[in-house]
Amino acid sequence: MASKFRQRRWALAVPFFTQSSTFSELWPETRRHIVDVLDRGKYSHGHKVVELEEALAAYTGAKHVVGVNSGTDALVLLLRACGLRPGDEVVVPAFSFVASASAVVLAGGRPVFADIEPDGYGIDPAALAAVATERTRFVMPVHLFCQPADMTGVGETARGLGLAVVEDSAEAIGMRYGGTHAGLLGAGGVLSFFPTKTLGALGDAGAVLTDDPVVAETVAALRHHGRFGPTAAHFPAINTTTGAVGVNSKMDDLQAAVLLAKLDRLDADVERRAVLAHRYTELLADVPGVRKLPSVLPRRADVRGVFYVYAIEVDRRDELAAHLAARGVGTETYYPTPLHLQPCFADLGHRPGDFPRAEAACRDALALPLYPDLREADVALVCQGIRDFYRFAEAA
Ligand SMILES: *Cc1c(COP(=O)(O)O)cnc(C)c1O
């Protein structure tokens, strides 16, 4: 199909992310939703947002979905709605996006870090048990890259310690654990619709997922200056005045329009991502210097992974990234610094060596391009670049 969106890959041979081709296919449906927004004349926190919330509830099986302005806001408001009190401790894995821990601070709590599992990037349930104190009230497992955390182990440990489970499922749309969608395995979870995410908007947006009506109602109020009542149109009006100090984290209807169009083809996108990931795994299987390829671990429950990120662990990661960049291949470092060594958490007093698995992942992991626009020839080009880097390194 000839398209005005196609073939704008800027200068890079294989950018880390682009959606110019697939978005052209989505444009007629997106346009229909945008025209609907214009016709109704409400551009923020309007009908399109409610339509998206309902569609996401149907997709995930959540009893309640509350649209907000970002995944980060979703985490902050979810923690507040779950009753986090000032000074409460929340155990967070040391390997994650900074928002997992900053959300705890923004909600008034204190992050306590724990190392990740030996074979995956989820929080290690044994490490969780070791760091919890009498002030710990929550654990926040993060479902990173391609699979959910070990929710059987986390759930058992949390029950034993009396902790509530709040999931950072920002990356986890489509992931399931024992048949349940990520984000619905504890008190609640979140989704991020940041553009590069598996379901990405054309800007920032996020949502809270929960089966708990009180949590949903509280988040719905907090996102809109703390106003309960008619503004949270799809919840029963319990109070028309401001009940708590809230924020402005309303979702834009134009983002909801884009997301509704994309949600229709999410399962096809997830399958496409799996095909591309499988191709990477075939082509990288015997490359010296590539030490670890991603795979979805069997866990102790039936798990459906989703390849949001294809991250490999390699020798001389930063040199490899520079070599690929010189060939026009974009990569990303998810995540360059473990949370316990982020300057913004310096007051927690951690040192290098405190969480060795998280530190190793930050040193060695490199995310390769992975998105529905990517062609199999692009995957081959990326893999050839990696192979050449280590072949040259061996010869030198
Ligand atoms: C993307 C992401 C977030 C934050 O979502 P935003 O929508 O960017 O605010 C939080 N946690 C994890 C693990 C993420 O990947």
Automatic annotation (TrEMBL):
Which CDD domains is this protein grouped with?
Answer: AHBA_syn
Q: Does the keyword Transport apply?
A: no
Specify the superkingdom. Answer: Bacteria
* GO aspect biological process, one term: polysaccharide biosynthetic process
Q: What residues form the catalytic site here?
A: 197 (proton acceptor)
Under the heading Gene3D superfamilies, the entry gives: Aspartate Aminotransferase, domain 1, Type I PLP-dependent aspartate aminotransferase-like (Major domain)
Output the Pfam families linked to this UniProt entry.
Answer: DegT_DnrJ_EryC1
**Which GO MF term does the entry hold, naming one?**
transaminase activity
Keyword terms of this UniProt record: Aminotransferase, Pyridoxal phosphate, Transferase
- N6-(pyridoxal phosphate)lysine modification sites are 197
Extent of the signal sequence:
none
Q: Which family does it belong to?
A: Belongs to the DegT/DnrJ/EryC1 family.
Q: What is this protein called?
A: DegT/DnrJ/EryC1/StrS family aminotransferase
* UniProt source species: Umezawaea endophytica
Ranked from the top, the taxonomy reads:
Bacteria, Bacillati, Actinomycetota, Actinomycetes, Pseudonocardiales
